[in-house]
Write a structure and sequence with these properties.
Strand order of the largest sheet: 1-2-3-18-19-20-21-22
Oligomer: single chain
Helix content: 10-25%
CATH architecture of the largest domain: Alpha-Beta Barrel
Number of strands: 59
Strand content: 25-35%
Radius of gyration: 33 Å
Shape: globular
Distance between the termini: 17 Å
Structural class: alpha+beta
CATH superfamily of the largest domain: Glycosidases
CATH class of the largest domain: Alpha Beta
CATH topology of the largest domain: TIM Barrel
Number of helices: 19
Length: about 1150
C-alpha cells in the first residue's frame, strides 16, 4: 500500500559525517524484503497412482522453486481405493526399489534447488496405515454378546462369541459403512477376536420388555413403509424432506397401551441426519408436551447411531419433531428409530469412544434403581469360561444377563492411498510396539533410501489429520487403565455397552476415565512414538494432530505438544471455520513451538475446479494468518509425470491447483508467494501477544473455539487475542510472574478462563489454587466435584474444600470476586470487566471488518492487519503501544514507510489506516516516537480527522506536531483523471495478427472460438499523452486498470513494473510516467477454465487439455477474461 502521509518537512533526517561507514543492514528489514528460504510456504506434493517419473520430479521441483515454494511434502495417493490405473509403464509401487530410487532422485534435485523434502508417514489417508499391519496390530474396539438366563439352575451352555461385523457397534440397527472403509472381511476379523471378561448381573426389571412395538407409525410426509424404522436393519430407511423451524418434520408413534420409555435409539443413512428437534408425548395424539430436546452432536461418524437418554416418561403417543438437518444432509433418511424402556447413558456411543465427538458437559439423566445394574450383585465369571465358549455356573435366583466382552480388530484400512499400500490396515494407535513396527516397515525404509540426504534435505515427516474413526481398546488397555486411574475397570465394563452400573453419575465418571486413558495412550504411543523415532533419524514431525472438530478421542493440545510443527487446516468456502487453526496456534503458544503450519486452501469442487487464484485466495490466507498460522502448506500440487499434459493428474476433485500445469503459477505465483513469505517471516518472529487463556477442561476430545465462533464472541470481545490449554499444559507449564500467567518460553496471559462447568480433578484444582495464591486471575465457577470415578469420594471432598477456600463466597450472583493470596477469582460478571484495554481497536462505525494478530519480538511490536470486508477502508486504528513510532511494512512490495501522523495518549497509539480491497499491512513499532509526528489537522480552519490525509481534498491545511509546531500547506485541486480509451492493440500468442479497437471486452464474448476459449497471456498496447500540469510537484500519478481477469503485468515506457495479482488493479506510476507521449503494455493472464470448456466442443484427439477430473461440459458458462477496464490515470495531490 502507499504511504498514508508523506510530509517531508516533518520527517527527521539523520545526516552522516563524511567518512562514516555505512551501518550494517537491519536484519529484520532485510529478512522482510528478501525472506529467507525457511519463511517460504511449502506444498503437499501428491504422487498419484504410482505414476511418478524422474523427469516429472525435476520439472515439478524446478517450477516450485521458481514460483517461491520452499519445500514439498510427498503425499502418496490414488484416485480411488479400487483404482488400478497406473497411467505410466512401468509404474513405481510404494516401497519398491523403483520407489526408493525416486525418493533419492527427489532429495538430490531438492538439494540442488534449495528445497526441503518431507513425506507422509503412511501410504495414504489417513492416519497411520499400510500393507504391513496385521489384524492383531490394527485398531481394536470392544464387542460383546448378551445371554439371558434364569436362576436357580446350573448353566452349562455356550456363551456366544460376540459378532464381529463391519461397523462400530455389533448392533444390526446401526448402518453398515461402505466396504471400501475396510481391509479385511468380517469373518477374518472374527478370527482375531480376544476375550476381555465375562460379567453376569441381575437383569434390571426395566429391561424385561424393553422394546415395545408401536401399533402405528405416521409421518408428516407420506412414506411407503414407516415400519422399517423398527426392523433392526440399519440399511433400510425412509426418506423425508429436510426440516426447518418453520416447516418441521415429524414422526409419530402410537402404542396399544401406555409404555414407559427411558431412551431412544436413532440411526440414519449417510449424512442425512436431523440436527435438532424434540421428543413429545401425549395421551390422545392431538395434544403434545415436551419430553426433552434432541440433538445430533457428532460431525464425524455418519454411520454410528445415537442413543439419547430420556427422563422416565409413560404415554401411549410419542412424536419426534425435527426442526433442522445436518449441514450436508440432502434429506432426512432415518433407518432406525426405537423408543425403549431400557435405561442407557446419554449418547453412550460417544462416551464409550465408539463415536468421536465432544461430550457435552451436563448432569446425566437420573435413573431409578430398577433400571440400573446393582454393582453389589455383579459377578465376574471370566475364569469360568472354557476355551470352547461354554460356561459352568450355578445361576442365583432371578433373571440374569451374561455379558461376554472382548476386543476385535476394527478392520479399518488406509484409504485413498498408493495402490500397493491401499488396503493396509490402520495401526493400533494405543500400542507402542505396533506403532514402532509400523514405523520400521515404512518411514524408516524411506529415510534409509535417502542416505546422507536424510536430515539435511529429507528433513521432515508428515502426519495428516485423523480420518479413521476411533478405537476404544487395545490388548493392554485394562492394565494401563488400572495403573493410570488407580482402580480395576473390570466390574465397570458393562458401562461400555451403554448400561448403567449403580447410578448414571458413577457410570459417566467411569467413561470419563476410559476416555482419558485412551487419550493418554494415543498421545504417548502414537504421536509421541512417531516424534521420538523421527527425531532419532534427524527429522522433524509435522502433524495435524489429530485434526478438525475432534475426530478421535484425544487431548488435541497434548498431541500437538508432542510434535515439532503443529498443524491445522482450512478449506476454501469455510472462512469462519477457524477453530482447528486456532487450536494449533494456541498449542504452539503452550508448548513453545515457533512454527504453526496449516494444510492451506484445501477445496471441494464447489470452490475450485481451476477457478481459484491468488486473487481469490488472499483473503482466506490473511484471515488464517490472523488466527495464528505462520506457515502455509499448500493443498495441493499433484505430481505431473509428463512434460506436456495439461492440467494432468489431479487429487480426484479436491484441492486448489498449484501444479506447474496451471498456467498462473508461473505468472502470479512468484509475487503472491513472495507476499506470503514476507508475512510468514514476520509472523514467525517473537511470541504472540494474548490477554486470555481458555482452559478447555479435562475431557476428551476437546476443542478451542475459533475467532469467528459465536461461543467465543459471547465471552471475549473483539480486540483481544487468546490462547488455550488442556490439563497437561496447565499442570506442567504454567506459573505466575508479576500477576500474569507465564509459560516457560515467555508467553503470558492476564486471565485464565475455566469452562462453565463445576467439575475438576484434584490435581487441576490444586494447581488453580497455587496459581491464584501466586497472583493469577482466574475466571470461572467454583469446583464442587470431580469428573473422575477414580477420585470418588475421597479426592472429591478435597476438591470441594479447596474450591471453598479459594472461591470463598463467590456464587456468580451476589458475590462475583474473591481475593486469595496475591490473586483473585472472578465469576458472574463480564470477562471484559477485568481485562485491560483492547490490544487493537478501530472505528467500527465505518463498517470496516479488520482482522489482527499481534506478536512481540524483543522490544519490537508487530501487528498484522487485514481488510476482510468487500470494500476499501479508511479508519482510525488504535494500538496498545506507546513511546514507539509506527511504520507500515507492505508485504506485497517490501516497502517500509514511517508513519508521520499519529497520536499517543494514555498508553495507546492512534493512527489513520487505509486498506484497499483485499489489503493488508504490518504496523511495526520499533523506534522511539517522534516529536514531529502530526497529531492534529485543520483544513480551511476546521478540524479534520487524520484519516482525511490519505487523499487530501483541496484546501489550506495546518498540521500540528506533537511538539506543538505548526506547518501550513496548500493542497490544489487535483487534475481530472485521464481515460485511456484506445485504440488498443491486443496480441494473442495463438493468433498471427493482433486485434485492434477502442472497446475493452471479455475474451469469452469474442466471436472467434480461438479467442473465446483462450487460456494464457495476451498483451495489450496503447499510447497516450499526459499534460504537463498533471505531473507537477506534489502530485502522484496512479494507474488504475479497472477490472482485470485475472492478472496484469505492466510495462510503462519500456520499464517493467510489478505484476498486479488481485483487485484493486492500481499502481503508483509516479517517476515512470512522463509529460507528453507514453506507451503502456499490459500482459493479462486468465485462468485455465475457458480452455477446459472449449475442449469439450472438440473430439478427444483434438483437445489441448487432458485431466483425470473433468468438471465442465461444453455448456458450462465461460469466465470473463482479459482487460475489461476502464483504464485511467488518476492524479493525487499530496501534502
Amino acid at each position: 500500500m502507499r504511504p498514508l502521509l508523506q510530509i517531508s518537512l516533518l520527517l527527521a533526517c539523520a545526516g552522516l559525517h563524511a567518512g562514516t561507514p555505512a551501518p550494517a543492514p537491519d536484519p529484520l528489514e532485510a529478512g522482510f524484503r528478501q525472506p529467507p528460504p525457511e519463511a517460504r510456504p511449502k506444498t503437499w506434493w501428491h504422487w498419484m497412482n504410482e505414476a511418478v517419473t524422474k523427469e516429472g520430479i525435476t520439472a515439478d521441483l524446478e517450477a516450485m522453486s521458481h514460483a517461491g515454494i520452499g519445500g514439498v511434502q510427498i503425499f502418496y495417493a490414488a484416485l480411488r481405493n479400487e483404482d488400478t490405473e497406473r497411467f505410466i509403464t512401468p509404474s513405481a509401487a510404494y516401497l519398491s526399489p523403483e520407489w526408493f530410487d525416486l525418493i533419492r532422485h527427489t532429495a538430490t534435485e531438492a538439494q540442488r534447488l534449495g528445497l526441503d523434502v518431507g513425506f507422509l508417514n503412511n501410504a495414504g489417508c489417513s492416519v497411520s496405515g499400510g500393507p504391513g499391519v496385521t489384524p492383531d496390530q490394527g485398531m481394536q474396539h470392544v464387542v460383546w454378546s448378551e445371554t439371558r438366563v434364569t436362576g436357580d439352575t446350573r448353566f452349562t451352555g455356550t456363551v456366544p462369541r460376540p459378532a464381529v461385523r463391519y461397523g462400530f457397534l455389533n448392533d444390526p440397527g446401526a448402518p453398515t459403512p461402505p466396504k471400501s472403509f475396510f481391509g479385511i472381511e468380517p469373518a477374518n476379523l472374527a478370527e482375531h477376536y480376544r476375550d476381555i471378561a465375562v460379567i453376569a448381573f441381575p437383569m434390571p426389571p426395566a429391561e424385561a420388555d424393553a422394546d415395545p412395538v408401536p401399533l402405528r407409525i405416521t409421518t408428516s410426509a407420506p412414506v411407503a413403509n414407516p415400519a422399517v424404522l423398527c426392523d433392526r436393519d440399519g440399511n433400510s430407511s425412509i426418506t423425508l424432506p429436510n426440516p426447518t423451524p418453520s416447516k418441521p418434520v415429524w414422526i409419530a408413534y402410537e402404542f396399544a397401551a401406555p409404555v414407559t420409555v427411558r431412551s431412544v435409539f436413532l440411526a440414519c443413512t449417510g449424512n442425512n441426519w436431523p440436527q435438532a428437534g424434540e421428543l413429545q408425548y401425549g395421551d390422545d395424539g392431538a395434544t403434545w408436551r415436551t419430553v426433552q430436546p434432541l440433538a445430533r452432536i457428532t460431525l464425524w461418524d455418519r454411520f454410528a447411531p445415537c442413543t439419547t437418554a430420556l427422563p422416565e416418561t409413560r404415554a401411549r403417543h410419542f412424536r419426534f419433531v425435527f426442526t433442522s438437518a445436518m449441514a450436508f444432509a440432502r434429506q432426512l433418511q432415518p433407518a432406525e428409530l426405537h423408543l425403549s424402556s431400557r435405561a442407557r447413558l446419554d449418547h453412550w456411543e460417544i462416551q464409550t469412544a465408539v463415536v468421536p465427538a465432544l461430550v457435552p458437559a451436563a448432569e446425566p439423566v437420573p435413573v431409578s434403581p430398577t433400571a440400573a445394574i446393582d454393582p453389589d450383585r455383579l459377578l465376574d465369571l471370566t475364569d469360568r469360561l472354557r476355551p470352547d465358549g461354554t460356561l459352568d455356573w450355578t445361576v442365583p435366583t432371578g433373571d440374569w444377563t451374561i455379558l461376554r466382552l472382548g476386543h476385535a480388530p476394527m478392520g479399518l484400512k488406509n484409504r485413498s492411498g498408493s495402490m500397493a499400500g491401499s488396503g493396509g490396515l490402520e495401526v493400533d494407535k494405543l500400542d507402542r510396539a505396533a506403532v514402532e513396527q509400523f514405523f520400521a516397515d515404512g518411514p524408516a525404509k524411506i529415510i534409509a533410501a535417502a542416505g546422507p540426504l536424510a536430515g539435511p534435505v529429507l528433513n521432515n515427516l508428515l502426519m495428516d489429520s485423523w480420518e479413521m474413526f476411533t478405537q476404544n481398546w487395545t490388548p493392554r488397555f485394562a492394565g494401563e487403565f488400572a495403573r493410570r486411574r488407580g482402580y480395576d475397570p473390570r466390574r465397570w465394563l458393562p458401562v461400555m455397552t451403554g448400561r448403567i452400573v449403580g447410578d448414571a453419575k458413577s457410570s459417566t465418571r467411569f467413561l470419563f476415565d476410559v476416555r482419558r486413558t485412551i487419550s493418554e495412550l494415543v498421545v504417548e504411543n502414537h504421536y509421541g512414538t512417531f516424534a521420538e523415532l523421527a527425531h532419532r533419524a534427524g527429522l522433524k514431525l509435522y502433524a495435524e494432530a489429530p485434526g478438525h472438530a475432534g475426530p478421535t478421542v484425544v487431548d488435541a493440545f497434548a498431541t500437538k505438544g508432542r510434535v515439532d510443527v503443529p498443524m491445522g487446516e482450512f478449506w476454501l468456502g469455510r472462512l469462519h471455520d477457524s477453530s482447528d487453526a486456532k487450536q494449533a496456534a494456541a498449542s504452539a503458544q503452550l508448548y513453545g513451538q515457533r512454527i504453526v503450519a496449516a494444510e492451506s486452501f484445501t477445496s471441494s469442487p464447489e470452490e475450485c475446479n481451476w477457478q481459484e487464484s491468488p486473487a481469490t485466495l488472499k483473503s482466506f490466507g490473511d484471515h488464517y494468518f490472523a488466527a495464528g498460522i505462520n506457515q502455509f502448506i499448500l493443498h495441493t500440487s499433484v505430481h505431473q509425470p509428463w512434460p506436456d499434459r495439461v492440467p494432468g493428474l489431479t487429487l480426484l476433485m479436491y484441492g486448489s491447483h498449484f501444479e506447474r500445469t496451471n498456467g498462473w503459477l508461473e505468472v502470479a505465483g512468484p509475487p503472491w508467494l513472495r507476499y506470503i513469505a514476507r508475512c510468514q517471516f514476520l509472523l514467525q518472529r517473537g511470541l504472540p501477544v494474548a490477554d486470555v487463556n481458555f482452559f478447555v477442561g479435562e475431557d476428551t476430545p476437546n476443542d478451542l473455539p475459533g475467532p469467528d465462533d459465536a461461543r467465543l464472541r459471547a465471552i471475549l470481545p473483539a480486540g483481544y487475542d487468546y490462547g488455550g490449554c488442556s490439563a497437561e499444559g496447565l499442570l506442567q507449564r504454567m506459573q505466575v510472574r508479576d500477576g500474569r500467567i507465564v509459560l516457560p518460553d515467555g508467553m503470558s496471559y492476564a486471565v485464565l478462563v475455566l469452562p462453565d462447568w463445576p467439575e475438576l480433578t484434584l490435581p487441576v484444582t490444586r494447581k488453580l489454587r497455587d496459581l491464584v495464591a501466586a497472583g493469577a486471575t482466574v475466571y470461572g465457577p467454583r469446583p464442587i466435584g470431580s469428573p473422575s470415578l477414580g477420585e470418588h469420594p475421597r479426592d472429591e471432598s478435597e476438591v470441594r474444600r479447596i474450591g471453598g477456600e479459594v472461591w470463598g463466597a463467590v456464587d456468580g450472583v451476589q458475590v462475583t470476586e474473591n481475593r486469595f493470596g496475591l490473586g483473585r477469582v472472578v465469576w458472574g460478571r463480564p470477562l471484559a470487566s477485568i481485562l485491560d484495554v483492547r490490544d487493537f481497536d478501530y472505528d467500527r462505525s465505518t463498517g470496516a471488518n479488520l482482522d489482527c494478530i499481534h506478536r512481540r519480538d524483543g522490544d519490537t511490536e508487530i501487528y498484522f492487519i487485514s481488510n476482510q470486508g468487500p470494500a476499501a477502508v479508511n479508519v482510525s486504528a488504535s494500538f496498545r503501544v506507546s513511546g514507539k513510532a509506527p511504520a507500515l511494512w507492505d508485504a506485497e512490495t517490501g516497502e517500509i514507510t514511517q508513519v508521520s501522523s499519529y497520536v499517543q495518549h494514555d498508553g495507546r497509539t492512534t493512527l489513520p489506516l487505509h486498506l484497499s480491497t483485499l489489503g493488508s499491512v504490518f504496523v511495526v513499532f520499533r523506534h522511539p516516537a517522534s516529536p514531529e509526528a502530526v497529531v492534529a489537522v485543520t483544513r480551511d480552519g476546521k478540524p479534520v480527522p487524520l484519516t482525511a490525509l490519505h487523499e487530501p481534498a483541496a484546501g489550506a491545511y495546518v498540521l500540528t506536531t506533537a511538539a506543538g509546531r505548526e506547518h501550513r500547506r496548500i493542497v490544489p485541486v487535483s487534475p481530472t483523471p485521464l481515460s485511456l480509451t484506445g485504440p488498443w492493440t491486443v496480441h494473442f500468442p495463438t493468433e498471427p495478427q493482433p486485434f485492434r479497437g477502442n472497446a475493452l471486452t471479455s475474451w469469452s464474448d469474442h466471436s472467434e472460438a480461438a479467442i473465446r476459449f483462450f487460456s494464457g497471456t495476451a498483451t495489450y498496447s496503447v499510447g497516450f499523452d499526459v499534460p504537463a500540469e498533471g505531473l507537477t510537484t506534489g502530485q502522484r500519478a496512479i494507474l488504475d486498470l479497472g477490472r482485470v481477469e485475472k492478472f496484469a503485468g505492466i510495462t510503462l515506457n519500456g520499464r517493467p513494473l510489478r505484476l498486479l495479482w488481485h483487485p484493486p488493479y492500481v499502481i503508483d506510476v509516479t517517476g515512470t510516467i512522463r509529460p507528453g507521449r507514453n506507451t503502456l503494455e499490459i500482459a493479462v493472464t486468465n485462468l485455465l477454465v475457458n480452455r477446459l470448456i472449449g475442449d469439450q466442443h472438440l473430439p478427444k484427439p483434438d483437445r489441448r487439455t487432458w485431466s483425470t477430473h473433468e468438471p465442465y461440459t461444453k455448456d458450462s458458462p465461460l469466465l470473463p477474461s482479459g482487460l475489461l477496464g476502464p483504464v485511467r490515470v488518476k492524479f493525487q495531490s499530496q501534502l
